[in-house]
Amino acid sequence: MAGPAFADPHPDILGAGYEAFTAQLPDDSEGAVVATLVRHLSGTTSNKAVLYLHGFSDYFHQVELAEFHATRGEHFYALDLRKYGRSLLAHQTAARMTDVSDYYPELEAAVEFILADGNAQITVNAHSTGGLIAVLWLHDRRRAGRDVHPITSVVLNSPFLDLPAAWAMRTIAPRPFRLIAKNRPLFALPSSGRSFYQSSIHRSERGEWDFVKEWKPVTGGVVRAEWLTASVRAIARAHAGLDLRCPILMMSSAKTVRAREWTDDLYRGDAVLDTEALARWSTRLGDHVTCLRIQGGMHDLLLSKPEVREHVYAELARWMDAYSFPADQDKPSRSGHASR
Asked: Alpha-carbon distance 65 to 152, whole Å?
């Protein structure tokens, strides 16, 4: 039986050059479910593509990344996962997840769409929680015997490979916490207050970026017991070691920032995750891992200060030129879907 498919193209909120496709997914306990794939085509003939996955309490809005790849001749696709961003429906609990495998159907549908669009080689680029989801998906995909040949490399931007030190799961014993998640899955963990990280990036606060605050709250997302328990299981699997065979680039800030009040250091480090832990655990993902520590980088490296982003893109281009798209996979260019 065929899985979900992306269809019904319509102009995206990002404007000219961007269009969105919707996939109707099977209903879950909350009702109807959809996922959204955003497409931005390169102006050149190419069979190379990038699939981007966002992080927790987030959605795709990084136009600069899409333009970077389009300029390089790489078609760009970004997936707003179910219950996030463009895919969040009125009756749904934002970011609700029972297991990382919840997202596998839309990821598989996205790959099928990109290949049917005439592409032969795909780099997966994923940020934060999207990085954790991506590596487990690719590992399980290979173990299930699915064709991983089109996915030639993985780029991870501050992947969620370990829990932040301040999170409640660090101080609550695992078994009682699992009982909380089972009996009260939507139980919201106590918040330590306003998210300094989100405040540091949105232009209505202390940052330079504009994004839809209903989809990426400046106050920070609500962490629920069910979501956190699923994340802990996935992190434990990553720590045990995965079997990704393609080259992996893991980029993170060179510095972790922990702040209880505002400091300009928030512009120069990762205020969400422990970057030392990311570097350490990234080596468990596969045999070919490049770890880059970016001086002055924020949690989402692509939202850092301009001079830092310039460095990030230079390093990304150099690594992709070396590892992402093997020349022997070149094939005739994309046949494509309609409505370009």
From this structure: 19
